[in-house]
Design brief:
Blueprint (H helix, E strand, L loop, with lengths): L2 H23 L3 H26 L20 H20 L3 H33 L1
Length: 131
């Protein structure tokens, strides 16, 4: 499996997260949702490729059950955390620390999914207030 593909996916995810930060400050929820979805897709692809390289067994490492992903309540700090995790995943990949890269990308992926759920929840609450 090509490390270039993983690096490319991580770079694309980082770009989409940076776009998310910009859209968050502009209060453009539609653009935020699109950026988060794109970042999530790229991160998912990177996690998938990293798991192929690692040859993951059916039973995953204990870090896959991280409590960090259950604490998402605010977007901006979560986006910063995701950015840092993906930057670190990319650095770890460059240093050939595949398991560490996988762990960081996996955690970012879970935070991204939670961010998408939080955004959808806020959208539904806003819609209820309007009606």
């Amino acid at each position: 499996m090509s490390r270039e593909k993983i690096e490319s996916a991580l770079s694309a995810a980082l770009k989409h997260l940076e776009d998310s930060m910009a859209t968050l400050s502009n209060n453009d929820e539609h653009a935020l949702s699109d950026s988060l979805w794109s970042a999530s897709a790229e991160t998912e692809y990177a996690v998938f490729l990293l798991s192929i390289i690692r040859g993951d067994m059916a039973e995953g490492p204990s870090w896959k059950h991280s409590s960090l992903t259950r604490q998402l309540t605010e977007f901006k700090p979560a986006l910063n955390t995701m950015l840092n995790l993906l930057k670190n995943a990319k650095k770890s990949l460059e240093m050939n620390h595949i398991e560490k890269s996988h762990e960081e990308a996996w955690t970012a992926r879970n935070l991204l999914l939670n961010a998408q759920e939080l955004l959808e929840k806020k959208r539904k609450e806003a819609k209820k207030r309007v009606t």
